[in-house]
Amino acid sequence: MEKQINRDDPVIIVGAGLSGLRAASLLSAQGIKFIVLEARDRIGGRVLSVEVEDKPELGKFDLGPTWYWPRYEMAMNRLVDEFGLQTFEQFNEGSMLFERSRNEPPQKHDLSTESMEYSLRLVGGVQSLVDALASKLPQEALHLNTKVTSIQQDNNRVKVQTDGRSIYASSVIIALPPRIVEQDITFIPQIPSDLKSNFIDKPTWMAGHAKVIAVYDSPFWRNQGLSGFVSSRVGPLQEIHDASPSTGSGALFGFFGIPAEVRISVGKEQLLELVLEQLTRLFGPLAKEVRGILYKDWSLDTHTSVKKDGEPLREYPNYGPLLGGKPWLQNIYFAGTETAYGHGGHLEGALQSAESVVNEVIRRYH
Questions:
Q1: Does the first or last residue of the chain, that is N or C, have fewer Cβ atoms within 10 Å of its Cβ?
Q2: Do the beta carbons of residue 260 and residue 208 sit within 8 Å?
Q3: Amine oxidase domain location, by residue (predicted)?
Q4: Residue 52: CB atoms within 10 Å
């Protein structure tokens, strides 16, 4: 029999990424008390939109997720419409380049309009969606620099211990990558072994990747009839795309095809030199004239990655809800793109997971 919820205690949301903030906004709309606890000094989680230092006029660029697919991703569509966010189509016009070896020039392939799925980006980066969600929340409910260290179930209450205090909750929504949960949070009583195994078996999306963005005064490659899309067997970047804002400056972003331990051993400075060498090889001497280079190695982000995540994922894993743990999971819920029924690894998955979990929590209040 399900225990009666204690309505005097708030729902505690652990993690202020997209999933955690969406969960908070839905609870807020229902008038349910909540607190969001975030270990970082910022909101957004793996959403990270940044400017080139001292050059804000160049725009914001996404070092995390960048686009979404509006034909299939209804939760994203709804939120973008609700907040009136501006979007623009990801640029894919022109030829792609395929780089086989250093000893031969890259091959050009014309892209048909059907070859690249229609995708949209947000003006101001994906951070604009995160900021819009946060703007609807009472600021006193959002606590940054607050890392949860343990969660203890106590009848119809849950005691959440941070690095500074204890807080009692009616329910807890954990909106963190499952592997981070398993590594960083102690549970009392202990997690059942089947649930713990499921935590470990869910790789964290992006955790093994690093992303680099080269920013220019303009997207000069478009004048060459190039889309900016590159597939390379040479590297160091394995995949490159146009990352230019809707107007103004130009940018190219790429993912590395080498494991985290290799990137770390090479070092950031030399790695970025190799990146510029590759971009110049592909796009000509104008690629040397960068206004700035932005870099984020997610494998070094301790709030995202564990040691097991060091190898970059080559394709989307078969994500889905966490399995096992009942009746241990009496009033603890898990949200995030790694636990979504569909669209795992996408922004859409993070939103759908949050919406599904909050519906479960709300049912306990009625």
A1: N
A2: yes
A3: 18-104, 112-362
A4: 20
> What are the CA-CA distances from residue 3 to residues 62, 134, 156, 287, 364 (Å)?
43, 31, 6, 62, 9
Q: What is the pLDDT of residue 1?
A: 41
Contact status, residue 174 vs residue 353, Cβ threshold 8 Å:
no
> Quick one: tokens of 130?
């995160």
SS3 328: coil
Q: How far apart are CA 287 and CA 280, in angstroms?
A: 5
Report how far residue 175's alpha carbon sits from residue 36's, in angstroms, rounded to the nearest whole number: 10
Arithmetic mean of pLDDT over the chain: 93
- Model pLDDT, residue 365: 75
Identity of the residue numbered 204? T
Give the whole-angstrom CA distance, residue 210 versus residue 294.
Answer: 11
The rounded Cα 191 to chain-centroid distance in angstroms is 26
Q: What is d(CA 108, CA 20) in angstroms, rounded to the nearest whole number? A: 43
CA distance linking residue 348 with residue 120, whole number of Å: 13
Q: Which two tokens stand for residue 246?
A: 């809707």
DSSP state of 68: B
CA 248 – CA 218 distance, rounded (Å): 6
Gap between the Cα atoms of 243 and 232, Å rounded: 17
Looking at the whole model, is its pTM more than 0.90? Answer: yes
Least reliable range by pLDDT among 136-145, 159-168, 246-255, 313-322:
313-322
CA 247/CA 228 separation, integer angstroms: 16
